[in-house]
Amino acid sequence: MKTKKNNQENVNAVGKEDRAMNLFADMMIEKIETLEGDWKKPWFTEGSLAWPRNISGREYNGMNTLMLLMHCERMHYRIPVFLTYNRCVSLNFKDSADGRVPAVDADGKELPWVHVLKGEKSFPVFLTTFTVKDEDGNTIKYDDYKLLSDSERSRYKVFPSTMVYDVFNIDQTNLLEARPDLYEKVLASVAAVRREPNDDGFSFEAFDRMAADGKWLCPIRIEHQDRACYYPGKKEILLPEKSQFDDSQSFYNTAFHECIHSTNAKLERQQDGAAFGSPEYAREELVAELGAALTSHRYGFDAHVKEESAAYLKSWLKSLREDLSFIRTTLFDVKRATAMLTQCLDALGAQVEEPADVKPVKRTRRVKKAA
């Protein structure tokens, strides 16, 4: 039965999601305006930041990651670790046989109180939960559902639900002063992976194996030629050789860009063959730009706007200013495409070890990179 209270809660929930999306749109506009002034700037200038996560160590996903990295850059946070207000309060307690009791040190002395600093403002993140029900309305855990075979899954329906949570950066709390040992422990756990700006000869074996062994959604053909592109008709990625780029980072960033494009059909973002220069083509280019930027950041590479994509900066700004659904659908598509690519690379990365030494790759002319 719907009540006035329930209706108001629904209105508040929708309003909170829209406010978060408006904030994200404003941040994207600010970022793209900066890039418009100098499109050779990297997407993320805070290169020392690791992949954002919560204080328990759980990493955020694509959309949240993108906005939290921009938030850290905007606010100059050193550590991309976040927690909710309630999680901050919970640091002051521990569970015992007698219930919840104040946290104490090894000598039994009550630890200093951890709290959010006065005047600090929270930042929104999105959490998607899934309710799984069978034909009779019986529910099972989503983690159990993922373990089922395709035929078993057909007996269930999955209902996604999105919630908005407010989080604070760890430096918006007094944790450093109150619990310096815990702060240092958190700091040590988030060391970023960084590559040198001119790391010629570096080999990112997870991608190299993915390309050589055909582990990606489509074949990745690497040849000595001047084009980098994804062919929807052939369902194939074509890349120049690594030696044709100024450095290894440029090669891998371009490869990530084309890999994001290649998820189009699998994730049903748009019909293949969108006209060059059309709004649909421009949005797909933004999805590939952001997806490649996130993937590059995850593995320690700098990510710059592709020269061909720079032509769409004004188009992206116009869409962001005029249509809230543009940022919503774009970030959702970035999230899914990036997750698909990084999951594949992470799985392959777990199977290989980086070489102790590498031979330098000869520099030749800078390659022209197509969309």
Keyword list:
five-stranded mixed beta sheet; single chain; three-stranded mixed beta sheet; 43% helix; globular; 371 residues; 13 helices; disordered N terminus
Mean of residue pLDDT values: 85
Give the count of structural domains. 2
The total of helices stands at 13
Quantity of strands, as a count:
10
Query: Helix share of residues?
Result: 40-55%
What is the succession of H and E elements? HEHEHEEEEHHEHHHEEEHHHHH
Principal-axes shape call = globular
Structural class: alpha+beta
For the sheet with most strands, the description reads: 5 strands, mixed
Q: Determine the strand fraction and express it as a percent band.
A: 5-15%
Strand order of the largest sheet: 1-2-7-5-6
In angstroms, what separates the terminal alpha carbons? 52 Å
Q: From the alpha-carbon coordinates, what is the Rg to the nearest angstrom?
A: 23 Å
Short description:
The chain has about 375 residues and is an alpha+beta fold. It is built from 13 helices and ten strands. The protein has two domains: about 5-190, no CATH class; about 205-350, no CATH class.
Structure overview:
- This protein has 371 residues and is of the alpha+beta class.
- It folds into two domains: 4-188, no CATH class; 205-349, no CATH class.
- It is 43% helix and 15% strand.
- It is built from 13 helices and ten strands.
- Helix 2 links the parallel strand 1 and strand 2 (81-84).
- Helix 9 crosses helix 11.
- The model is unreliable at 1-13 and 354-371 (pLDDT under 50).
